Predict the 3D structure of the following.
Amino acid sequence: MASKVHVPRASLEIVRRSKDDLTNILLSKYNCDVTFSGVFDFDDGAAAARPSRRSVRPERRFETSLHSGVVVSVWKADLTNFPADVVVNAANENLLHIGGLALALSKAGGARIDRDSRDHVRTYGVVHTGTAVMMNAGSLLPCKKIIHAVGPRVRNKYCQTELSSAERLLDQTVCSIIDLVENNGLRTVAIPAISSGIFNFPLRNCAETIVRALNRARGLKEILLVNIDEPTVREMERACKELDLHTRGASSRMKASTKIPTSSAHFENVRVTVKRGVIEDEQTDVIVNSTSRENWTAGPISKAILQKAGPRMEKQLQKASPDEHVIVTDAYQLKCKQVYHILWPVSQDYYVETAVLQCLRMASASHHSISFPAVGTGNQGLGKRDVASYMLRAVAEFATNYPKKLDVCFVIHPSEKDMFKAFEEEMSGAQQMAPRQGRRDEHSRGTDSSPHITLSGTSQEAQHEAQRWLSQLLSKSSERVSVCNNFILHLGEKEQTRLGEIARRGVSVEESFDHGQATITVLGNLPNEVAVAALQVEAVLCNAVDEFVSQEKRQLSVSPGGLDFQREAISPSNPDYPDAVKALQQMGQEIVKVERVWNAAMKQSFDNLQHQFALAPRKMFQCVPAHFCDVVCQVGFNAECAPPDDPQYGEGIYFASTVKKALEVWKFPNQEYVYIVEAEVLTGKSTPGRCGLVVPPVLDTNPAERSDSVYGGPDISVIFNSRQALPTKIIICKMLRKQCKESSCLH
């Protein structure tokens, strides 16, 4: 859920002058997209966040299937809000999204799209014609990823040889898209008519080339050919029919003249779809089950879900706390990420609305889509029309206070024709009432015209940290601001020149290094000038961190189009749930979330190094600041990310053998949460550490050989090679009040 930070009038000048810096800092440090409202003479928040494209209701024109079973469909729809796992952007080689579909997707996706594109080109160079790269989709909900695909350009006066060459390159482009989607385990992709716009590829040839290339697909569920203009849609439909892509003997299914068994409506930012299908086959982030503790498989829905998921799901259910009304389990063999199991205490009609509302709130914390069956119509015996009304009412109530996008799907079994009809009729009423309801809610709540900044983060914890950081910045008026960040040590000549330019604008910029902590202090007589300069310094440091991550990725040989890393929440019943959680709970820490970290490139590098060590890795811990959590997940541990308060054993990367010791070594008083990273660490041959070491000392037993690490007592180890440690888990705790005191230093 997004959060607002109100801008005091005294700070309006700071925000107006620092809009770009603030946007880049919050995105770089906290993975938060930013919307400014009432800050400028015009409200550029909502307008800047959405492209000025005409609204088009999604319309499926044609559907067929390949010999491999992959469904191919043609749609007239707006790609900026289309529901697919992946959307494809028709990009140029430099990933500069300055016009047409590219600009629309860039605006809809927020600042992350442009920043990730710049970072990619800076790290790997231009994207060559005929290739594609996959990146984070930013705010392009409900999709999970965006692919930037570079198709060929065709001159106005072209010959047949040139067109044939362009067709081969476009075929390569589409194959690159399919490979990226399949290799990353995604199931649906929406592809526009690449190269047919300003790249001047003849539309008819473009459609035929793209459709022919689709026959390479094997592991996808559906390829959706999506365009917003009627001529292109017609050409894609024609190409699919004429090239006879579907399995021989099977008839294509025309959707223009027959009614599609789906119905949809919008409640504020929440998109609701009712469809026919089986819930256990859904690929949304979350699917919902309706069950009972007395017999987990008593109903047909629960039985089907548990059978497809496998026996481990029922074992996990049996371990759940008796106080839970909605149990969260892993997906196991299902295609979703998690399953929410609604437990029925008694046959109460109002419980339908309560349970659906609880599931929506749970899903909104970290997911973008959720599918429900028609709950309450089985053993509970509730009426079909009542159930449809209760479930849609829950969505409407949830949507009034949820500013982000969420895809909600009600999946009705094909045999339940009366149930589908009940939902369809209720949905029809909802479509008529939704606009009036929205205006009434807006009037009742009042228009928030006071200047504010809205933050939308990928995780609730990071968003809270960003809100805390921004609130502190805007609420204090000071002639002295200190920015603490050890990546100051990475600043090169270009960055130092930039700091000099900042210092020439009526403020002084001083660097210091004390007890292992690097600080830049900005001083001046005018608090607003100091604040603006401090944000410029923050932006310089964020750029230095991004440069560092890019360099480390090159050393790790991360695939340009691959997924860098994965952070996946795990439940207490999961066998991988860390034992350290119990120790933290005994210390009074409130556990917010536990995540598993996976990074294939780092794992391979770690495994290669492990073969050189005689000793097995140790399980150790490090506390990291919120804004360096993703850096550790992407490229591993680094001395600059989490220096201890007193580096008395050397200038390396510190680890503690227990979580208790970790909380003693690292303290971040300016954070709302504690991020404890569990890691496998190759300490190898170790010797005592001492202050000032920058490399391991020689071994006492063999002066010709250096030690692999140093130690500071039984609980502290220090390594000097980041490849000797592999992050495996992140434990996020709520900061205890006595720990959570304000600091004068911005981190």
